[in-house]
Amino acid sequence: MKAEKRPILGISVGDPAGIGPEITAKALNEKHVYDICKPLAVCDLKVMEAAIEFSGLSLKTRAVSSPAEGRYEYGTIDVLDMKNIDMSRLKYKTVSAMTGKASYEYIEKVIRLAMAKEIDATITGPINKEAINAAGIHEAGHTEIYARLTGTKDYAMMLAEGDFRVVHVSTHVSLQEAINRCKKERVYRVIKLADEALKRLGIEQPRIAVAGLNPHAGENGMFGREEIDEIIPAIEQAVADGMTVEGPIPPDTVFSKMKGGQYDIVVVQYHDQGHIPTKLAGFNYDRKTNTWLSMSGVNITLGLPIIRSSVDHGTAFGKAGEGRANPESMLQAIEMGVRMI
Length: 341
Description:
The protein is α/β, with parallel strands linked by helices. The chain has helices at 20-27, 31-36, 45-54, 97-115, 129-134, 142-150, 175-180, 184-200, 226-240, 251-259, 271-282, 328-340; strands at residues 8-12, 38-43, 60-64, 76-81, 121-124, 156-161, 164-168, 207-211, 244-249, 265-268, 283-286, 291-295, 298-302, 308-311. α8 crosses α9. The longest helix is centred in the N-terminal third of the chain and has 19 residues, at 97-115.
């Protein structure tokens, strides 16, 4: 990709006490990232410098005050220096109001830049919800922050590990609330968001499966009526509108069918129904070495007026500050952001 055509990606690195700065530095240590985009790290310069040092990388940093000032040359990380971390108080692996506030401000900054069209997409590192709430910012997660700051009412979370994709009807709510949110209008809207997203990724006619909410997809009303009253009418409407949709399919078989190539994406009804199979597909833990051999997968928020692609894992406080975090998911998030542009 020619240098002048490379899009600018704003990367909010996540909680400074977690692995976010480290995996950002490691991802930007890969030359091919600079071949496809202009990455801008949004964080504290000293936080990034510390991550480079304890990771044993030979990278330089350059502070900028705006995306336009970036040089975006491999070997030097352009950092939009937020200057909001006191390094003498920073403790890795620890929940604190200071790092929670900083991570929120990183997110807010990349959103503002994207809304102002100063950057082409946003990439987000892992945050700690407890830390953000300790700072007095009461948000359920990245998805909700993006929705509020962009004024988006209709949105959905999509997780992707290669061709294994899920999109959620509900996410950060209780299981009881998730049941209450399983309504025809919402299910239909998520099907449509999934269809639009996959077409944007180059799939001309996405094959969409819709998971049931109840065991055996309700077994014709024996285990609940949500499938009959809400999910089936949403599917019928989507099919009438020209989308290729099947369901409701029992949740215990639908993911195996997608893995085998029958579907391009599964609409799931609640948080864990989608997160568990996707992380099983992308995360590989080795008991002998007590390490994650792989932590792949990305998180994309659909329905926003800007692009947001994210890592699909948390802050991993247990290994923060040690230089042994795996940047695989961050690399995939960057690549996905470029694809969506």
